[in-house]
């Protein structure tokens, strides 16, 4: 573990030294290749490709199939030279230079007439279409009538007959048609480069010349609504991040460059001008502060790579200009890689400022950029931007013990993408960085134990030019052994730039516990207040709900999946909400244990966090204290104390939502007696509440002040019959109602393989506790424990107690008795300067645990406090801090964040700050 930590520190140090020397501006490479091709390969790559074809069966097969299908079109163009290019979607007759849209829909084209046909614009931003594109052979050549319509297939009629239809009815099919034709031309350009057969060059050049000249004379679309869409449009697509034709025309031009320069010399400036117009628009439009920026940068970078040097162009805008724009320059909607990194990455934690799903995409994009710089420019981007290696190293922090990532925000939980680890290894190998290579090799082998066995002949290789130039087989140092997952995660990890906090007591898939707690800071976030996910017995039992069936465009996303009622949180007066997507509503971390630290630290038997959140819609103050208490090598439980009240009073109600996986649930009094639950129409939009309430159904309610217990059961009949149960105990309060309900399916997990039942077909089991009036002096006090049929609940009973100080109205006291003889008295105060007393125990802290002695073991914990008094033991500190005192097999150990005085059996011991459990000299 220490070697891994040392490696992480060293690789960050090595990269940081370089970053400091270079400053924030990344210098361009001194030498850049002057010949073509230079994007997918180099001129020397031709011989390498031929050797690959001779050596590898898959390569020969791909080449032959590529050649065979392309020759279909060279044969057609032998008879009709314009057969393929005439099927491009162009303004063949009107030569329109201007395109007009209304929001996300094409309206019409016009403007001055260009000297040649121009590229037709696509129909809509979305993909929905009443009319689809014909097969290529059925496309009407030079299709462009006086009304600007296209001839496409009516999807609603039998046989899908061709009809003249307005482009707005065709979705994105116009783009699709052009990309297919450009793809054929790109294949032909590659085959010309490989074989020198001119038939391929003629086919490719005709299409390329027609299309790129049409781009050169076409202008950026104008939004007649003068809306946000104007800042997003590309030259061919409604979003600059979907200018996918560029990914085709760049290698097409690169492979065909020498032929074009010889046969179309007068057009070379037009081609370059078209590329630059395209790139300039991507620089001008888009979104700078999230993953869009990197998608845009990829297009700009590729244009830069394929252009000649600045000095070759009258405007001075060539290769260096666009590459430098990607690295160091910014417009209002296109930030440099350095500025985006400064904005999005937390320099302390390495976490990117979006939800885990999108963060993984961004980190992967950055890692791919590093790979591109290594391959194309022989330049170490990771050394220039040291935060990249730190960000990649931080990604395991997202993992639950089953190795699935957390699900908050717009995330579909899945296994962690390991491509960015591979990129860091390749970067290290390319630049001689042994420490970095060893660190990420151990991490890769940890998360993908089969990586060393993934060798041999490639199968089912796609028939594509790119297949010849994709990554060479990864060569891993066999001397580097797989790391342990525990060395890459922290017992408690806090990322303020996404308002996310994790507590863990280990990483055992079956027996460890983990809390993921989040608010709404950063991009792709939901309106969820202080929301939690709980793990147990191999699954995220209390999950985030997901995104919705139709992602962000659906009503279910707007009304339910992105809103409070779908999350494990507390909603105030039925109205709690705020803007989703880019949100700026974080919680404040008031106190925690252990401190958020680098990975690889020792797991502790107690963890906790206390956070504060201002719910803006209702102007409510909320705190949530959550803790993991480990009671044995395979047992433990969660503690949840949620306080909520409106700033100005007048509280109507506070609704505590909890959703759990499973097919059945029960809700009874804690003693097992029936609550007489009755059907109800409460929890509804009626009453001026959130629409999200209306998504709950099969609702039953009981008005009761009794302590209650709920169970949520996953039927594991298809996985060995060891049913999984989440047990929930909650303290009763006056003026409280408790509900059972069904919610929409847990969409976030609906794509996850290996789930114990069909998530899409099973509504989500939901528990709601409604506190009428405020919920500060009557907080929601809960204990959660995962168990199974074969590993039954280790808790014998849960009860509650009040402090003897009657002024402590918001105090929460819990007594948890375990079947192994352990009894925990848990103290939760809203003010750490106050003192709470109960049966001789005394606590002055945010949080404390006092256990009895059982089998020579005992646990005492003081959280953000100064005093703990328990039978035969006292702890005192001069300043608020965390002290964990444990007796194991008769010996006492201490972990303390501040100097403290401990008295055990009247023996006083002075202890300093300790970073790990340390034996007390008693």
TrEMBL record:
The segment(s) forming the Endo-acting ulvan lyase C-terminal domain are: 796-884
Q: Name one Pfam family in it.
A: Ulvan_lyase_2nd
* Alphabetical UniProt keywords: Glycosidase, Hydrolase
Query: Among its keywords, does the record have Lipid metabolism?
Result: no
UniProt key word Hydrolase: yes
Compartments (UniProt record):
Cell envelope
Q: Which GO terms describe its cellular component?
A: cell envelope
What are the residue boundaries of the Heparinase II/III-like C-terminal domain, all occurrences included?
522-612
GO MF annotations, alphabetized:
hydrolase activity, acting on glycosyl bonds; lyase activity
Question: What ranges does the record give for the region Disordered, renumbered to this chain?
Answer: 25-45
**Composition bias, Basic and acidic residues:** 25-38
Where does the Endo-acting ulvan lyase 2nd domain start and stop, copy by copy? 349-460
Protein name as annotated: Six-hairpin glycosidase
Specify the species. Bacteroides xylanisolvens
């Amino acid at each position: 573990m220490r070697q891994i930590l040392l490696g992480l520190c060293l690789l960050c140090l090595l990269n940081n030294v370089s970053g400091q020397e270079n400053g924030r501006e990344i210098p361009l490479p001194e030498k850049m290749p002057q010949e073509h091709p230079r994007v997918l390969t180099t001129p020397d790559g031709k011989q390498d490709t031929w050797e690959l074809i001779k050596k590898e069966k898959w390569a020969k097969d791909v080449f032959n199939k590529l050649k065979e299908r392309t020759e279909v079109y060279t044969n057609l163009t032998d008879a009709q030279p314009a057969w393929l290019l005439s099927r491009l979607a162009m303004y063949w007759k009107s030569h329109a230079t201007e395109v007009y849209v209304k929001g996300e829909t094409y309206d019409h084209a016009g403007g001055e007439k260009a000297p040649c046909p121009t590229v037709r614009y696509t129909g809509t931003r979305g993909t929905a279409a009443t009319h689809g594109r014909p097969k290529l052979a059925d496309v009407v050549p030079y299709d462009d009538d006086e009304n600007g319509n296209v001839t496409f297939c009516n999807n609603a009629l039998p046989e899908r007959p061709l009809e003249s239809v307005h482009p707005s009815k065709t979705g994105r099919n116009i783009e699709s048609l052009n990309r297919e034709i450009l793809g054929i031309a790109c294949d032909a350009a590659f085959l010309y480069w490989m074989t020198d057969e001119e038939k391929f060059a003629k086919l490719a050049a005709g299409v390329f010349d027609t299309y790129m000249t049409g781009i050169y004379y076409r202008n950026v679309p104008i939004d007649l609504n003068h809306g946000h869409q104007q800042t997003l449009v590309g030259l061919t697509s409604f979003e600059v991040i979907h200018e996918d034709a560029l990914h085709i025309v760049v290698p097409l031009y690169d492979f065909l460059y020498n032929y074009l320069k010889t046969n179309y010399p007068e057009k070379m400036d037009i081609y370059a001008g078209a590329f630059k117009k395209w790139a300039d628009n991507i620089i001008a439009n888009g979104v700078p502060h999230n993953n869009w920026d990197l998608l845009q940068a990829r297009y700009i970078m590729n244009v830069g790579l394929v252009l000649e040097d600045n000095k070759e162009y009258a405007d001075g805008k060539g290769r260096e200009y666009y590459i430098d724009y990607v690295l160091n320059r910014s417009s209002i909607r296109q930030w440099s890689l350095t500025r985006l990194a400064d904005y999005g990455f937390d320099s302390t934690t390495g976490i990117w400022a979006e939800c885990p799903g999108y963060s993984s995409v961004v980190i992967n994009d950055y890692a791919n950029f590093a790979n591109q710089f290594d391959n194309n420019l022989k330049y170490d981007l990771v050394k220039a931007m040291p935060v990249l290696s730190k960000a990649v190293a931080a990604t395991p922090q997202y993992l639950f013990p089953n190795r699935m990532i957390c699900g908050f925000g717009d995330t579909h939980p899945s296994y962690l993408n390991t491509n960015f680890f591979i990129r860091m290894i390749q970067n290290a190998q390319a630049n001689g960085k042994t420490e970095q290579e060893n660190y990420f090799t151990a991490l890769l082998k940890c998360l993908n134990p089969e990586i060393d066995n993934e060798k041999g002949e490639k199968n089912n290789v796609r028939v594509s030019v790119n297949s010849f130039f994709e990554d060479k087989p990864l060569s891993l140092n066999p001397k580097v052994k797989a790391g342990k997952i525990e060395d890459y995660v922290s017992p408690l990890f806090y990322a303020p730039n996404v308002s996310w906090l994790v507590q863990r007591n280990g990483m055992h898939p079956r027996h460890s516990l983990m809390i993921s707690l989040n608010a709404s800071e950063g991009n792709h976030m939901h309106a969820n207040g202080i929301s939690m996910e709980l793990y147990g017995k191999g699954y995220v039992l209390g999950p985030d709900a997901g995104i919705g069936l139709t992602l962000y465009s659906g009503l279910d996303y707007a009304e339910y999946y992105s809103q409070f009622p779908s999350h494990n949180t507390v909603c105030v007066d039925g109205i709690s909400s705020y803007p989703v997507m880019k949100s700026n509503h974080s919680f404040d971390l008031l106190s925690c244990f252990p401190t958020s630290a680098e990975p690889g630290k020792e797991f502790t038997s107690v963890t906790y966090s206390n956070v504060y959140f201002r719910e803006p819609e209702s102007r409510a103050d909320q705190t949530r204290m959550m803790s993991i208490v480990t009671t044995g090598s395979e047992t433990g439980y969660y503690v949840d104390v949620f306080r909520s009240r409106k700033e100005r009073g007048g509280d109507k109600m506070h609704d505590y939502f909890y959703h759990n996986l499973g097919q059945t649930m029960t809700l009874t009094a804690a003693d097992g007696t029936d609550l007489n639950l009755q059907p109800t129409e409460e929890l509804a939009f009626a009453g001026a509440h959130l629409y999200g309430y209306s998504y709950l159904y099969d609702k039953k309610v009981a008005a009761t002040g009794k302590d209650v217990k709920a169970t949520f059961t996953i039927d594991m009949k298809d996985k060995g019959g060891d049913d999984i149960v989440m047990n929930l105990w909650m303290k009763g309060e006056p003026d409280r109602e408790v509900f059972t309900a069904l919610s929409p399916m847990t969409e976030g997990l609906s794509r996850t393989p290996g789930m114990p039942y069909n998530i899409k077909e099973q509504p989500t089991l939901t528990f709601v506790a409604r506190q009428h009036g405020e919920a500060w002096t009557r907080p929601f006090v809960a204990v959660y424990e995962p168990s199974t049929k074969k590993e039954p609940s280790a808790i014998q009973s849960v009860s509650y107690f009040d402090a003897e100080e009657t002024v402590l109205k918001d105090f929460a006291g819990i007594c948890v008795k375990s079947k192994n003889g352990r009894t925990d008295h848990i103290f939760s105060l809203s003010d750490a300067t106050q003192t709470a007393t109960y049966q001789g125990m005394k606590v002055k802290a945010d949080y404390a645990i006092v256990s009895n002695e059982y089998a020579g073991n005992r646990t005492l914990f003081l959280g953000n406090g100064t005093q703990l008094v328990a039978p035969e033991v006292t702890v005192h500190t001069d300043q608020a801090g965390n002290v964990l005192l444990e007796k194991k097999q008769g010996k006492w150990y201490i972990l303390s964040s501040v100097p403290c005085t401990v008295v055990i059996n009247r023996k006083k011991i002075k202890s300093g700050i300790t970073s790990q459990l340390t034996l007390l000299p008693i």
